[in-house]
Design a protein that fits this description.
about 25% strand; 2 domains; about 450 residues; Alpha-Beta Plaits; binds zinc ion; eight-stranded mixed beta sheet; alpha+beta; four-stranded antiparallel beta sheet
Length: about 450
């Protein structure tokens, strides 16, 4: 039953959404966009690829990304960016000012997960460390944030080398602690809004188990809100042979876990959706000792504010009432492990980015996706400045592997983010993410070309 919180975390509910990625709705093409920034050459990709493999082999847990942040900062210095380090602990912000024009914020997250990698790749991680609960753990880049870092490195270099082709300011943000929901908040609390120029748009992308080279987009809500809680239930310890002397927190916890299953089935309308997962259930050490407490860690996903409020209230009500029903000596203690807002894509800004993707990649590689029950803290940047956000996904599964799984009806069996055997294929995933970031940024900072006027 015991499971680390991150294993059950962000992208885990996403697989069922892949197959719905087929609604290729045409986008308006009258936007003034030109694919002026060149795509990455093989030579240019060689260095980010080497750095990707190095970061993959040397992953760092959330809010501990010192080595990765140092690599990002060094890279930005080399490309001529003004670099600010240690923003919200290990965050790095690079500014490239290139005359009057829009400011675009390009964000990559840097953290890895407490997972033991089983990809068998030559650059697989064998690193270990200590997680935020003080537990020793293996560490792996099983969510692909190492790829996000490499994408942003490639894009920042091409922007730096092609300053004649664009106008404005690029703000490259290497963010810590996405998995735990701490990083964006930490950077904002460290003065992001006051210390750096206000962006016209904030842009971010995530690698996903789609066919490599595919881009997935969505207007409005693309990712769910995520709430994680730790709950301690209190009982009274006693000898295992004398239950009458105890208040058994194991039975209390078991009963609460079963009752929590009714929140989604009985309190959420059929037309809405939610997830309530108990990812950690821990109590006792010995078969003949009734412990005095039990620990639960829960993860809750919702797509609407009103549903979120109702589900959180129901979960709390049930845990309080189960403690009361068991005669607990005191009410449960609740602590918030993480809070992720809904990830909402601005309509006009998404149209603009998608039109640029279609120009760059062709309509066949760009598709609308359903909202996913994964969560992100990227939206906090757009909210902090009150500017539009656009978040999209990039496929990382080998094209043939994906096509075969699709034919066999086995897409759900492909490794997904947070699985120990998940890692994107380098080609064409690395190139696609660099190009996608440049295409989206270019929609704001490149002059309209003759063909688009
Ligand atoms: Zn992720
Ligand atoms: Zn993740």
């Amino acid at each position: 039953m015991k499971m680390r919180i991150a294993d059950a975390n962000l992208w885990s509910g996403l697989k069922s959404n892949w197959r719905q990625l087929l609604d290729k709705r045409p986008m308006p093409t009258d936007l003034h966009i030109t694919p002026a920034l060149p795509g990455p050459s093989g030579d240019l990709l060689a260095k980010p690829e080497g750095i990707y493999q190095d970061i993959h082999a040397n992953p760092e847990l959330s809010m501990q990304e010192h080595r990765t942040a140092n690599i990002a900062a060094t890279w930005l210095h080399e490309q001529g960016y003004e670099v600010t380090e240690s923003v919200g602990s290990t965050g790095v912000v690079g500014l490239l000012r290139n005359g009057d024009g829009p400011v675009v914020l390009l964000r990559a997250d840097m953290d890895a997960l407490p997972i033991k990698e089983s990809t068998g790749l030559p650059y697989a991680s064998s690193k270990t460390g200590t997680d935020r609960f003080g537990q020793a753990t293996s560490i792996a880049h099983s969510c692909g944030h190492d790829m996000h870092v490499a994408w942003l490195m490639g894009a920042t270099r091409i922007l730096s080398e092609n300053r004649k082709l664009w106008r404005g300011t690029v703000m490259a943000v290497f963010q810590p602690g996405e998995e735990t929901g701490q990083g964006a908040r930490a950077m904002i609390e460290d003065g992001m809004v006051k210390r750096f120029p206000k962006p016209d748009v904030t842009l971010a992308q995530h690698v996903m188990p789609l066919s490599a080279g595919q881009i997935g987009w969505r207007i409005g809500t693309i990712l769910s809100a995520g709430d994680s809680w730790e709950v301690t239930l209190f009982g009274r310890g006693a000898h295992g042979s004398m239950p009458q002397k105890s208040i058994d927190p194991v039975v209390m916890a078991a009963s609460a876990v079963m009752r929590l299953q009714t929140v989604v089935s009985r309190e959420v309308a059929m037309t809405d959706s939610a997830v309530v997962t108990v990812g950690t259930m821990s109590a006792g050490m010995n078969e003949n000792i009734i412990p005095d407490r039990a620990l639960l860690r829960l993860n809750i996903r919702t797509f609407k504010d009103e549903v979120r409020k109702r589900v959180l209230a129901a979960v709390k009500r049930i845990l309080l009432a189960e403690a009361e029903a068991s005669g607990a000596p005191k009410p449960p203690e609740f602590s918030v492990l993480s809070e992720f807002p809904l990830t909402r894509n601005d309509e006009a800004a998404t149209h603009k980015a998608v039109a640029a993707f279609q120009l760059r990649f062709g309509a066949d590689r760009v598709a609308e996706i359903s909202p996913a029950t994964a969560s992100e803290d990227f939206g906090l940047f757009g909210t902090a400045w009150n500017v539009p956000s656009v978040f999209w996904v990039v496929g990382g599964i080998d094209h043939t592997t994906y096509a075969n799984a699709q034919k066999a009806g086995k897409l759900d069996e492909l490794p997904a983010n947070h699985a120990p055997n998940f890692a994107p294929v380098l080609d064409p995933t690395l190139k696609t993410g660099v190009e996608a970031m440049l295409a989206a940024a270019g929609a704001w900072i490149c002059e309209p070309g003759p063909s688009a006027a």
